[in-house]
Design the sequence.
């Protein structure tokens, strides 16, 4: 497969029946093993197979009872995303082709596995599990469907192991980014994480930081929230905190080639955050001499954001004001398939824009950032 361009590609007969005629890149597609023992255990040493089978995977913090998702939406999934022959949403490639990739004319789907072991308390097990997830992405997805591109899952709480995995996958056309989760044990700007960002920058891989994760601390600054609703809204707060950390600790200054993608936390909060950072940096810059420029300059040069959940202001032109400040070239379209808050491309952009902006928004920005290469 040749890398897709902004034009609609020559499609197969089956693809020509697609309902959506606009070619898109979907920068947040969630996949999960249908059967962990059958699909993942072949990529795990016997030690870790036995460990997981006996003790399970212990996160850095557990939920009070059951999963985080409400009973009405198990796995946070659309009801129609369950494969007809059984299995979890996002576990069946053939079904995803028929249900998502073909109907929506998806030219590139960036895979973001979430059940990855990244938040395990046992870091050795987490590293083995993360590597298995990466091998599984290649075996079950990217080698079989050239439109899919994997994310390098790393155990970010074990920086040397994360660096090793990034370097091992560098240059592999099956992968287009490194995947972290936003709720880490410490803010990502802390020095112990720096070698991981340096390795990603050196490899040419953007770092996607997806909402959620297990860091051991509450999602809010004041303790544990009571409701799933608070959990969902808290995604944006976590992304703001980690972005401030990356800026103020000087990660962007030290890694000018680093590219960060903030995934599934909205984007309308970015201008006001940057205004506040710039204002206070101007008054207190002597505390952070390593931050040599206004924070907004680093953000505008080195940060991208996915569009799901799409912002929906009551006054629609306010959305244009927000995007114009961020930059049309910094937004990457995403559906969050197969989750319940999925954004369909026909309805995700409720304002009139130019054809150039539309093409960039839905496809070209992702191609320019990720530079997907064919798998030989």
Sequence:
């Amino acid at each position: 497969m040749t890398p897709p361009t902004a034009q609609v590609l020559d499609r197969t007969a089956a693809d020509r029946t697609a309902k959506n005629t606009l070619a898109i890149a979907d920068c947040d597609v969630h996949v999960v093993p249908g059967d962990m023992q059958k699909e993942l255990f072949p990529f795990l040493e016997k030690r870790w197979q036995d460990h997981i089978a006996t003790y399970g995977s212990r996160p850095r913090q557990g939920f009070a009872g059951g999963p985080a998702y409400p009973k009405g939406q198990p796995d946070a999934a659309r009801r129609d995303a369950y494969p007809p022959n059984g299995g979890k949403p996002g576990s069946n490639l053939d079904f995803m082709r028929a249900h998502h990739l073909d109907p929506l004319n998806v030219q590139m789907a960036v895979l973001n596995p979430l059940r990855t072991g990244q938040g395990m308390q046992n870091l050795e097990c987490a590293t083995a599990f993360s590597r298995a997830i990466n091998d599984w992405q290649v075996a079950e997805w990217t080698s079989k469907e050239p439109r899919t591109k994997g994310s390098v899952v790393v155990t970010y709480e074990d920086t040397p192991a994360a660096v090793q995995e990034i370097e091992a996958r560098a240059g592999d056309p099956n992968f287009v980014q490194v995947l972290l989760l936003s709720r880490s044990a410490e803010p990502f700007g802390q020095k112990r994480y720096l070698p991981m960002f340096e390795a990603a920058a050196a490899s040419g891989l953007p770092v996607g930081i997806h909402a959620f994760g297990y860091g051991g601390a509450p999602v809010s600054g004041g303790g544990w929230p009571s409701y799933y609703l608070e959990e969902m809204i808290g995604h944006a707060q976590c992304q703001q905190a980690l972005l401030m950390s990356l800026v103020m600790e000087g990660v962007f200054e030290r890694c000018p080639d680093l590219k960060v993608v903030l995934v599934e936390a909205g984007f309308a909060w970015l201008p006001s955050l940057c205004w506040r950072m710039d204002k206070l940096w101007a008054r207190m810059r002597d505390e952070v001499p390593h931050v040599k420029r206004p924070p907004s300059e680093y953000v505008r040069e080195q940060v991208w954001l996915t569009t799901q959940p799409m912002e929906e202001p009551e006054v629609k032109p306010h959305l244009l004001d927000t995007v114009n400040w961020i930059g049309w070239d910094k937004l990457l379209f995403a559906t969050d398939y197969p989750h319940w808050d999925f954004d369909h491309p026909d309805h995700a952009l409720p304002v009139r824009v130019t054809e150039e902006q539309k093409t960039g928004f839905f496809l070209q920005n992702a191609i320019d950032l990720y530079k997907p290469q064919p798998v030989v």
